[in-house]
Amino acid sequence: MIDPPTKLLINGELRDASAGATFPTFDPAHGGELTTVAQAGTDDVDAAVTAARDAFDGAWAKTAPAKRARMLNRLAQLLDEQTDELAELESRNNGKAKWQCVAEIKVAVSTLEFFAGTAQHLYGRSHVVNPAVVSYTLREPVGVIGAIIPWNYPLMMAAWKVAPALATGNTLVLKPASATPLSAIRLGELALEAGIPAGVLNVIPGPGAEVGEAMAAHPGIDKIAFTGETDTGRLIAAAAATTLKRVSLELGGKSPNIVFADADLDAAVIGSLWAIFYSAGQSCEARSRILVADEMYEAFASAFAGKAKALTVGDPLAAETKVGSLISREHAARVREFVRIGLADGGELLAGDDLELSDGLDADAFCAPTVIGNVSNDSRIAQEEVFGPVVTLTRFSDEKDAIRFANHSRYGLAATIWTADGARGHRVAQKIHSGAVGINTPFVAFPGVPFGGFKDSGYGREQSVETLDLYTETKAVLQGTSPKPINPFGV
């Protein structure tokens, strides 16, 4: 594993926090401390914002789009070259299976390449207002972006913010989650190596209650891009409102997975396993509510529970591991409490009652893939985000029932539909209140495809050309073309 980076990155320099504060970061799967990281405070926020503003007001916003694109492509190349080392760093820091971290770094690479391609395609519009006035629009960078990212996809989420921001000529202050700061700092180092100027990307690990709040309210930050839990998103939006800065929020989810009676059973079972147990269920778009047609329920429940029991839970660094640890002992305890609540409310435990781990692992940070059957769609475990390897099965009687159950949630991030009826798939997709709907596929996020939520899952779209609107201002320019003076007063 590469040596973990441990300092703040401000104005192109790795430095200690201004107050000298530090905090430990851990290896949740194996237990124990990985390293100690500099802990930013409000003075460091000010310094990072100043560096980003100076870089923005300097040459960066005026850098040719083609040059920005080359830098992003070079950064993508550097990430790709260091995939194995970065994946091990990521796996040790958040407990996820290393092969999954490899896949996520590949997505980060693709994201950088996608937005590098958009840098030279920020088109305005022109139109004739009337015979005497011609107008056109310009797409200009917003300014300094404050990006706050979660612990479940540290490097990938950083790329989701960094790529569109830099492609459009903005500068950034990036705050990674306190639990998983290491890969984001390394990304900042690689950005410098890729030729991105000092101050364009600053990385300041620190507690959300202090650093995140200071960023959200900071008058020197023009936009906040946040990914995280819904309640925190509300606080971010409220703090950002004090300076009327732009905000985009990618928040929580309780996404439905609908299995109709005509679905391919094997495909639905295998796809549904991925949709919930990837990343140990610690995904905002995890399809944690499986709604199954009455006629299909028994066959699906039996096959799905059997496959869930067969998933290998263990050392994230082992190639055979399918489900690694959760982010911490505390989070694992919270997940197990939700299982207890679900069973107390009448759910039936179909999988998840046993977990055997090899020596050297912290068993308290792991949870077995858990399947709870015959769950009421109104129950707490079917309505609240568990954020772990726990899924509920709920019966439905017909298409109308399935749509009603799917939409009965305060969230609306993702959904999946399994059916052999193409017309039904599209019909139901149009009625689901979610930002992304997969039909006969568990995948809902690719570079180039808009990703974002309805309702309490936030607002704004990432990973697509729509994202460019979040990071640019539209300026209208109007020119009079009449040879005569414009004289409305007739003076």
Set out the fold topology:
Elements: E1 8-10, E2 13-15, E3 22-26, E4 33-38, H1 42-57, H2 65-81, H3 83-94, H4 98-118, E5 126-130, E6 133-141, E7 144-148, H5 154-167, E8 171-175, H6 182-193, E9 201-203, H7 208-217, E10 223-227, H8 230-241, E11 246-250, E12 256-259, H9 265-277, E13 289-293, H10 294-310, H11 329-344, E14 348-351, E15 370-373, H12 380-383, E16 390-396, H13 399-407, E17 411-412, E18 414-418, H14 422-431, E19 436-439, E20 454-455, E21 458-459, E22 472-480
Parallel strand pairs: 7-8, 7-10, 8-9, 10-11, 12-13, 12-18, 13-16, 15-16, 18-19
Antiparallel strand pairs: 1-2, 3-4, 5-6, 6-22, 11-21, 14-15, 17-20
Give me some keywords for this one:
491 residues; alpha/beta; Aldehyde Dehydrogenase, Chain A, domain 1; Aldehyde Dehydrogenase, Chain A, domain 2; 2 domains; 7-stranded mixed β-sheet; 6-stranded mixed β-sheet; 37% helix; 21% strand
